[in-house]
Design goal:
InterPro entries: Marvel, Synaptophysin/porin. The protein has 132 residues and is an alpha+beta fold. The chain is built from five helices and two strands; from the N terminus they run ββααααα. It is rod-shaped.
Length: 132
């Protein structure tokens, strides 16, 4: 499914023009947040198990192994989610690249019109969000 995300761009006459970014950039973020919520819920359940039922955890040898396996699964999915987050970020960067935005503006398609991007948007904090 594709979303059209509207944003306003000024044209040469000082009026604003509505452009639409085409694409679905929400899936990686939704996966990352869902994994975070499930990780939090599992952590709370494991904490209750460790603190309230400590003797059960110590006596049953299958319970620590199951906990270890679930933790490994969460670690793997967290790595996948971080990669998906990075892919989503690169897609957003590609869609908001100044050259892409200029190409989408009809006012810049004239033969006597010169459009330039000005400053490139800073994506440093977005890059850090993927690394951390």
């Amino acid at each position: 499914r594709l979303y059209q995300i509207p944003f306003e761009m000024p044209d040469c006459e000082g009026e604003s023009q509505t452009l639409h970014l085409i694409g679905d950039f929400s899936a990686p973020a939704e996966f990352f947040v869902t994994l975070g919520v499930f990780s939090f819920l599992y952590t709370m359940a494991a904490l209750v198990l460790y603190l309230r039922f400590h003797s059960l955890y110590g006596e049953n040898k299958k319970l620590p192994f199951a906990d270890f396996c679930v933790t490994l699964c969460f670690a793997f999915f967290w790595l996948v989610a971080a990669a998906a987050w990075g892919k989503g970020l690169s897609d957003v960067k590609a869609a908001t690249r100044p050259s892409s935005l200029i190409a989408a503006m009809a006012v810049c398609h004239g033969s006597d019109t010169v459009c330039n991007a000005g400053a490139t948007p800073a994506m440093g904090l977005a890059n850090i969000s993927v690394v951390r």
